[in-house]
Specification:
The complex is a heterodimer of chains A (about 550) and B (about 425).
Chain A lengths: L1 H25 L51 H38 L2 H10 L9 H11 L8 H6 L1 H17 L3 H6 L4 H26 L7 H15 L20 H23 L12 H22 L6 H21 L4 H14 L5 H25 L6 H29 L5 H4 L10 H13 L4 H24 L8 H7 L9 H5 L23
Helix pairs in contact in A: 1-2, 1-14, 2-4, 4-14, 6-12, 6-13, 6-14, 6-17, 8-9, 8-10, 8-15, 9-10, 9-17, 9-18, 10-11, 10-17, 11-12, 11-13, 12-13, 12-14, 15-18, 17-18
Chain B lengths: L1 H17 L9 H22 L4 H12 L9 H6 L1 H18 L2 H4 L3 H25 L5 H4 L4 H15 L4 H11 L4 H33 L4 H32 L4 H18 L4 H14 L5 H25 L3 H6 L1 H26 L3 H6 L9 H13 L4 H30 L16
Helix pairs in contact in B: 1-2, 2-3, 2-15, 3-15, 3-20, 5-13, 5-14, 5-15, 7-9, 7-11, 7-17, 9-11, 9-19, 10-11, 10-20, 11-12, 12-13, 12-14, 13-14, 13-15, 17-20, 19-20
Classes of the chains: A mainly alpha (about 550), B mainly alpha (about 425).
Chain lengths: ~550, ~425
């Protein structure tokens, strides 16, 4: 039932966000409604005591012939009657249009409900698609359908209005990924792990970026255009980030002894994605009218400094709240503020919030579990919203993006193979058996990869290359997950519904008061700490 | 101390970010949301240390951060966050409605009726009369109007000025965890008063238009008012049934569902010429009194997730306050605010005496009508846009009085609730008090 509720809530939220601007746009210009400028003064909805379509035309200096009020629309002078009739007709048309949009959203809601339904997901599992992206593919598809011109629900205007939510979601994702990085893990990781991660990330990065970049240049991108290089770096970065084969959600990735090596390496791998984002936002900045004139390298330090400052701030703030409601306000406010700061400075919310998340949970504090609890509650809505936006911005009609897909997948596999071989040769003797010997060449793409692409797309003006990249990454992740399902043993796969069933919607926050009384139930650990297993990663 | 340091840190970061560019189109909305949320939260904590209501802290954060003081939160940011305000109003209306238990309201019906007639309608007349006498102080409004027109305009402004704020009353009741006959009477009277003001404002607006423009469409006005009131109630009952059905059949995720319904109603309701406030009030009353579903659990859960919305709601309300204009027109605004409060006091006293209300109600209930926020500002804008002849001047008065009451009323209301002995009697989660 949780999954149903979460899916319904998410889609309702989307419906609201979509309907608002559409219905607003559908309204005729009304001289008696406050103008956009005046609307600033409205902290509450205008209680308009008369129908909009009965408003007189704009008054002209209070002439005697002008209509008196809402109710006196019929008394307007003859000059006002023609535009009034026009306005009435427009209103009727626009009302029909608004009804069409709302009806479309209801259908979307029903489809989303079906997409998240247990039976549908079970069916997906039987087909072998249960990874990070494919499990949520119905939502990607819904976003795609809603953005079709013939449907016209998630059009460009609506998507631009969704940007604040998107930025917040990106920040949330960065924060939760960072928050789960237990720095003590780095001390416990065996010697050679850093080298392993480096070469396993460098391989896919270099080969994918080079291969796809060459193809993009063949498609007409200019080699002297910085955007081409930015896109190449972005594709390489997206390819380098891997997910563990058992994906249990973003809020469930803290590695501890006893968990799979791929969880640890996947978690550390995500740092590569964050580093890539910091690099892109520092060295490929668009020319904008700003007062800060800094060299590109300085922006790297601004990113790091901002992340640290926000992290310290949130760390200090979470010690103040006395109730769950206050805690929710602080965590939401902190992430929204961090995302806003990052977006305002044209930096990536993912990177800034990642750094903040690392600091918040690695400084000694008693609020760790509460932070994770809030993050965990928001996970599914944010994740699915993401997938839907990803679907909406996905231009499937551009064939060049599809041509990039096989190259992207092949580049990843080839790069991973090269990385694994290199790592095994160079540091294999230092590492425990399952670190180097059991590495896979075909690894799922992290959900962070799609977030990276969406993040960059939201920061930069749209270019053809970015559209291709979205196709390459979404298409590539689906193909990769299909390949993973073909190459994996049954123990490697996890039924996503199991996670959905466990996920708790936001509204159950009230129950946390009771949960708080049971301190022995940390929510950020999905498995009880296991005793040391032989060769589990200890030196 | 820690709250002050954190507030300074958040403010410093905001200042630094705003110095980067004046263009707020990029991430301005989430920046403003996050900043207002944090700043109002910490300022409220500081205010609370000095015995002031947290609500005043939220509003003060908005005033300081708003476009008229530090300009951290610009006009454009405020507009982009309007959805938060509208949603908060719908949430408050749903909660207010669900607090109104007919069984408990019945015994105070006479008092409510009396307060509506003597205090609310009486204050409209008193304010209009005071404005009429003060005409020389407002040449921008009255210079071009003849005697009859002046009377009509005075009444239009008087009705708009008599508007109350269920939001502030709800927030203060929650903050002080007040429960008892006074709290019930205050909440019910402010809700009924709001409905009265909305209805009468439409009528007065039509009459004023006729006096200035020359004609009146009685049928059109009646239809418009009828649709807004009755249509909203019917729609609200439908919403209440929907939420009730969800509560009974789905259960999980009910508060999220209700929250999203509030968003939809707030945004779409107004466009359908329905009043979101009445819609959600009706929904809440239905849930509380007629639905088989257990709405109390929903409301309890609701409170856990609503604090962020309310922090931003009241901070945004504060950010609209032009503190300089308020100071410039302090004398006339102060006089009108005092007349308004005095007429509420007198009216409520008469009503309570006539209805034999409890002593605590007779002593303090009138002050529940004093706070103002969104509705009065909205009516000011309607006046401003409908009547260019005097709308600008009227808006200055309205904004001034609302600002005055925003600053003063929550503090006095809190004191009165504490003195009444009803503060702290309500159990459970509250969004403003920060405790249980």
């Amino acid at each position: 039932m949780n999954a149903r509720a979460a899916a319904s809530a998410l889609l309702l939220a989307l419906a609201c966000l979509v309907v608002m601007p559409r219905v607003t746009l559908a309204q005729p210009a009304n001289p008696q409604l406050p103008t956009a400028k005046d609307e600033q003064a409205l902290p509450a909805p205008i209680t308009q005591p008369f129908p909009l379509d009965e408003q007189p035309a704009a008054r002209s200096g209070g002439s005697a012939g002008s209509a008196g009020s809402a109710g006196s629309a019929g008394s307007a002078g003859s000059a006002a009657e023609v535009p009034q009739k026009k306005t009435t007709a427009t209103t009727k048309n626009n009302t029909l249009f608004a009804i069409k949009v709302i009806a479309g959203l209801c259908v979307l809601l029903a489809l989303a409900y079906l997409g998240g339904h247990r039976k549908v997901v079970r069916f997906q599992e039987r087909l072998g698609i249960g990874g990070v992206v494919t499990a949520g593919f119905p939502f990607v598809a819904l976003g795609l359908i809603a953005s079709l011109p013939s449907v016209g629900i998630l059009n460009e205007d609506v998507l631009s209005r969704l940007r604040p939510i998107l930025h917040f979601g990106l920040g949330w994702l960065g924060f939760i990924i960072g928050a789960q990085l237990d720095i003590r893990v780095l001390d416990r990781a065996p010697k050679g792990t850093a080298y392993l991660i480096f070469v396993e990330a460098l391989g896919p990065f270099a080969i994918t970026a080079a291969g796809c970049g060459a193809l993009m240049i063949a498609f007409g991108q200019s080699i002297s255009d910085p955007a081409t290089w930015r896109d190449m770096v972005l594709l390489g970065t997206a390819a380098a980030v891997t997910a563990p084969r058992k994906f249990r959600g973003f809020a469930n990735r803290t590695w501890h002894e006893g968990r799979g090596v791929d969880v640890l390496l996947g978690q550390l791998d995500e740092m590569v994605g964050v580093i890539g984002l910091v690099f892109i936002t520092a060295y490929f900045r668009e020319d904008t009218d700003t007062t800060w004139q800094l060299p590109n390298t300085a922006w790297v330090f601004v990113s790091l400094g901002l992340g640290v400052a926000i992290g310290v701030l949130i760390f200090a703030m979470i010690r103040v709240p006395q109730s769950n409601a206050e805690f929710l306000a602080i965590v939401l406010g902190g992430i929204a503020f961090a995302s806003g700061l990052a977006g305002h400075l044209r930096l990536s919310p993912i990177a800034i919030c990642f750094i903040a998340g690392v600091l918040v949970t690695n400084f000694p504090n008693e609020q760790r579990d509460s932070v994770f609890r809030i993050l965990h509650h928001l996970e599914r809505p944010v994740h699915l919203l993401f997938l839907m936006i990803a679907g909406a911005v996905w231009n499937v009609t551009d064939w060049r993006g599809w041509v990039l897909v096989p190259l992207f997948v092949a580049g990843r596999v080839l790069g991973k193979w090269a990385g694994v071989i290199t790592a095994k040769t160079a540091v294999g003797t230092y590492l425990p058996a399952n670190f180097a010997d059991q590495r896979n060449w075909v690894t799922p793409l992290s959900g962070l990869s799609i977030a990276l692409v969406i993040s960059v797309q939201s920061l930069y003006q749209d270019t053809p290359g970015l559209a291709w990249i979205v196709t390459a990454v979404i298409g590539g992740s689906i193909v990769t997950e299909f390949l993973v399902s073909r190459t994996a043993g049954p123990e490697d796969m996890v039924g996503p519904m199991d996670d959905l069933e466990r996920a708790s919607p936001l509204d159950e926050l009230a129950d946390l008061d009771e949960e708080r009384e049971a301190p022995d139930t940390p929510i950020h650990r999905d498995e009880p700490p296991a005793p040391n297993k032989p060769g589990a990663g200890h030196e | 101390m820690i709250n002050l340091l954190l507030l300074i840190a958040v403010g410093g970061m905001m200042h630094a970010a705003r110095s980067f560019t004046t263009d707020t189109s990029m991430a301005g909305t989430e920046l403003a949301f996050g900043f207002l949320l944090l700043a109002s939260y910490f300022l409220a904590k500081i205010f609370n240390r000095f015995g002031l209501p947290k609500l005043t802290g939220y509003i003060a954060a908005g005033v300081i951060a708003g476009p008229y003081v530090l300009d951290f939160v610009t006009h454009e940011m405020g507009v982009s966050l309007k959805v938060v305000s509208t949603t908060a109003t719908a949430i408050l209306a749903l909660e207010a409605g669900s607090e109104l238990e007919i069984k408990k309201i019945k015994p105070i019906m006479r008092t409510l009726r009396g307060i509506t007639i003597f205090a609310v309608i009486g204050s409209m007349i008193a304010i209009a009369f005071a404005l009429f006498l003060m005409r020389p102080m407002f040449p921008a409004i009255f210079d071009k109007l003849d005697f009859t027109q002046s009377i009509a305009v005075c009444f239009a402004i008087g009705v708009a000025l008599s508007a109350q704020s269920p939001a502030v009353v709800m927030a203060m009741l929650a903050e002080t965890r007040a429960e008892g006959p006074l709290s019930r009477t205050m909440l019910a009277s402010v809700v009924v008063a709001d409905l009265t003001v909305i209805t009468l404002f439409s009528v007065v607006l039509a009459i004023t238009g006729a006096v200035i423009g020359g004609q009146i469409d009685v049928a059109g006005t009646a239809l418009a008012v009828g649709w807004e009131l009755l249509g909203s109630m019917v729609f609200g009952v439908g919403i209440g049934m929907l939420i009730g059905r969800y509560l009974m059949s789905v259960k999980k995720g009910a508060s999220m569902f209700a929250l999203l319904v509030c968003v939809i109603v707030a945004e779409i309701g107004a466009r359908m010429h329905l009043d979101p406030l009445i819609v959600m009030l009706a929904a809440g009353i239905w849930l509380r009194n007629f639905s088989k579903a257990d709405a109390s659990e929903l409301m309890h859960n609701f409170q856990a997730a609503q604090l962020p919305v309310f922090l931003v709601f009241f901070a945004l309300a504060g950010s609209k306050l032009d503190i300089q204009t308020l100071f410039a027109s302090l004398l006339p605004v102060g006089i009108i605010a005092i007349v308004r409060a005095a007429s509420f006091y007198m009216g409520a006293k008469i009503a309570c005496k006539a209805s034999g209300a409890e002593e605590v109600v007779a002593k303090y209930a009138w002050f529940g009508l004093v706070p103002q926020a969104g509705l009065a500002l909205a009516l000011a804008l309607v006046l401003k846009n409908t009547f260019p002849e005097f709308g600008d001047g009227a808006a200055v008065i309205l904004f001034g009085v609302v600002g005055f009451n925003e600053c003063i009323a929550p503090i006095i209301l809190r004191i009165m609730l504490i003195r009444s002995g009803e503060a702290g009697k309500k159990q459970g989660v509250d969004f403003a008090a920060g405790g249980h």
